[in-house]
From TrEMBL, chains A, B:
Residues 236-388 form the Peptidase M20 dimerisation domain. The lineage of its organism: Bacteria, Pseudomonadati, Bacteroidota, Cytophagia, Cytophagales. It holds the Pfam family Peptidase_M20. Keywords: Hydrolase, Metal-binding, Protease. This is M20/M25/M40 family metallo-hydrolase. It comes from the Bacteria. SUPFAM superfamilies: Zn-dependent exopeptidases. Gene3D superfamilies: 3.30.70.360, Zn peptidases (3.40.630.10).
């Protein structure tokens, strides 16, 4: 079932059952250093197993590896059946513990295109260092027995997203147990094998397994640190909903010579509609769109502590100006967005033809914050569209509707995920801050909310517990693409982060 | 070289040289009736020869057929060499004639997709009648020897566009010669074998063959009658120019969660720009765009005589309102158009992805009238774009330009054809009107300008002679598509039209 790891260290599986609570501080750096090679072994074993979420046959050895490795450590493990691939649940009860923390990881990965990887096999962990010309050069994995550079990286699918964090967690667990320590809270782990395909069964699982999953808080162990690579916590994620708008012109595309100036052009009508939704600086001007969002000076101050270099961001993106929804990049993420992600009418380029198009389509995505209920936003936008003189349909127009209504539009809206956001001064916020200060000697960068959306959001919503995302990996890890990697320094600091959390009194 | 016609009539080639001028009226209907079957034979011979303009090998038998058929009639024929396929020129000098009329036809056709034709071969002329259920049903071509219905049709590529009109012309010529008549003007014919690929060499040919082609007027024998199928003359054609606008966002598409609300969205910016160009009723609001166009009450009155049923047009197009550039459909054609023929940004439908697109493209075509010099319009539009805050490039932006200019757009403009328009009361206008009144007992429908553009426009411009388009075929002839056809009534009236023109004193 398991691939053979590249090299075999002394295998340190300590099977003991401890009931001792944390009562003495430990030297996080020293313990982490001592267990680093154990962590590399766990990581390399796990990332050697192909894990395309679209292929359940690949997922089976992954879930078996996880079962084995949790059972070996004395956890209670069970599969939670869903409509497709099961979730894996594991629990470690701690006598007299009052609180329970649920850790989330996902084990599946994006598909790989082997041709685009600079190594023969994306599932053969490959150690690389950057040479003088800036190229990544393979070096023997054995080198790690005697040498270490935090900037070396291990390349393999899911090394960062998200097997790396699970390997960090298991390594930290082993280190803690070796020191005869235990958390002072019950620990639950939920492993997802369908995250990269949108975790379609995660939300439903809560209603079925609510008692099993019950916890006081949830830590989502996934995602990259801030660009500065400083220790980071993220306190929420924007949600996402989407609308497809189709504006109708003539029933079929018409010769632009015969009917230009006469048959209304749907691309112009769509342009006018979209243009009416935002001002020149990208702010939505539909009344009520930003209602409920009132960033206080204190919140703005906390946001301003995120060390973004906006000139660098603009240079990297290749833009000479930014939208002005917020005063800063971080502030811009605190608002719902209204983004045209796609637009099409007629034909362009080599296929262009001189016609009045039959329709014009805009694909819109709306990133949500907790203040912006998507149904309410949909209502505001529909109302705005009506006010522009459109008759809104949920279907393609009939001949009768075409003649009856001068301006016709089709609306197709759907809501994927709601937003979630946990206050900085919530119980997990305060507790994690303490663990990070203990580990790194300073407070972490705190993202109030991530711009992107997480498939886990319905799960968080349904569980109704505060959730924080503990991010550890390097932001340039090429997740989802070819040559995904994890920086050794991040892997080591990730072990330390997990160890600090596991040994922080709650 | 020639395909065998479906059936062989008595072949009426009268090789005589006449110098007689027209001096007696002839019974146009009787003469046309007498020559109708001769016309069908000429038509069927010619449309049996495949003629895809993209395939010079197919064009060779066509030009040879035309040479033979003009030489057999005693014309002076020569090929005018061009950079690709030659034009064919033929001349018939008439002693003592003071004027010269140049007739234009094209012999090439659009490509055929045989699978989509309801007959085995688009180059096998097929006679059909409409049965009780409205379907076209093949009937034997031989039936024409004894029977005739104006609503029967012959189906084949180029039956209407444009071999049909050339067959009408040759038939009328034969009929006239049989009656020992001649025009009172010199006749020149120019045959184009590249019209369907935009007549790329026609404009240049004028400078090379200016003396050969010299004439007092030109009759373009191509195109369908008004929808009412009443006799029609068209006095010009709108020109066409085009612009591709590319608005730039971030250098590469960006995750809409990470950069929505921050990286400016090029689709919104393009929408705002396009929206600023026109009002709600489709009128261009860029100052000066319609300068020089002042339809007089008299011109409006003449335009109003075109028997358009606008409710029927709207119903056919499936539109509940029209743009208000003009008060009527005919008036709308008297103005330049500004049409979005294509628009694209990001991805739509199954390919949609949650990104801020890297760019947004609009393909615009501008139909031109004689008052609207395309260079002047380009200047007005560029000025308008600058006034919206855009920096206009003729290339994709460099990294420096991206950072320097907040709003970037690329402009790619080109002019295909200028417009031309001949006054109703010009010499050809008055003369043709007389011929039509003689043939049909009433004035023809007069289109001041056609909405569409003609590849012949540069030729007309360069020759600098008044040009009128003599249209004869049914408007529902499916030109360019599968099942192209010509209605027998139109073919017969086309012969009569040509005969009336050839025998009308100039």
């Amino acid at each position: 079932m398991k691939k053979i790891p590249l090299f075999i260290f002394f295998n340190l599986f300590i099977k003991v059952t401890l009931t001792a609570q944390i009562n003495t501080p430990i030297d996080l750096d020293a313990v982490t250093d001592a267990h680093f090679l154990n962590g590399i072994q766990i990581l390399n074993e796990l990332i050697s197993i192909p894990n395309d979420s679209n292929d359940p046959a690949q997922l089976v050895p992954n879930i078996e590896w996880c079962e084995d490795n949790l059972e070996n450590r004395g956890w209670d493990v069970k599969r939670l059946e869903t409509k497709s691939f099961p979730l894996l649940f594991a629990e470690k009860s701690v006598p007299n513990a009052e609180k329970t923390v649920l850790f989330y990881f996902h084990i599946d990965g994006q598909p790989v295109d082997k041709k685009r990887w600079n190594q023969p096999d994306p599932f053969q962990p490959t150690l690389k260092k950057r040479n003088e010309t800036g190229q990544w050069e393979t070096i023997p994995m054995e080198l790690l027995k005697t040498d270490y550079d935090p900037n070396w990286r291990i390349f393999a699918r899911s090394s960062s997203d998200d097997k790396g964090p699970f390997a960090m967690f298991l390594t930290a667990w082993d280190a803690m147990i070796e020191r005869k320590l235990m958390p002072n809270y019950n620990v639950k782990v939920i492993l997802d094998f369908e995250e990269e395909i949108g975790s379609p069964n995660l939300g439903d699982a809560v209603s079925k397994y609510k008692d099993v999953l019950a916890a006081d808080m949830m830590l989502i162990m996934d995602g990259p640190r801030h660009l500065s690579n400083e220790p980071t916590l993220t306190f929420g994620a924007r949600g996402i909903s989407q609308i497809t708008l189709t504006v109708f012109g003539p029933r079929a595309a018409q010769h632009s010579g015969h009917y230009g100036n006469y048959a209304p052009n749907p691309a112009f009508r769509l342009s006018k509609l979209l243009a009416s939704m935002k001002d020149e600086e990208g702010r939505v001007i539909i009344p009520g769109f930003y209602d409920g969002i009132n960033l206080t000076d204190k919140e703005k101050e906390i946001l301003s502590r995120v060390p973004d270099d906006e000139n660098e961001i603009k240079k990297n993106l290749g833009i000479g100006s930014t939208d002005k929804v917020g005063n800063t990049y971080q502030e811009s993420l605190q608002y719902p967005s209204l983004n045209i992600r796609g637009m099409s009418s007629g034909w362009i380029g080599d296929e262009v033809r001189t016609i009045v198009p039959a329709d014009a389509i805009a694909e819109i995505d709306i990133r949500l914050v907790p203040e912006s209920d998507p149904e309410r936003l949909f209502g505001l936008i529909r109302n705005h569209i009506s006010n522009q003189g459109f008759h809104i349909l949920d279907h393609n127009p009939t001949d009768e509707e075409r003649v009856k209504y001068p301006k016709l539009i089709k609306w197709e809206g759907s809501i994927s995920y709601q937003a979630f956001r946990t206050p900085f001064d919530s119980e997990p916020g305060i507790w994690l801050n303490k663990a990070f200060v203990r580990a790194f000697g300073k407070e972490p960068i705190k993202n109030r909310i991530s711009g992107g959306s997480l498939p886990i959001a319905p799960f968080v919503d349904a569980l109704n517990v505060p959730a924080v995302t503990v991010v550890t990996v390097n932001s340039d890890n090429n997740q989802h693409g070819p040559n995904e990697n994890i920086r050794l320094g991040n892997f080591k600091e990730g072990i330390k982060t997990a160890l600090a959390i596991l040994t922080e009194k709650l």
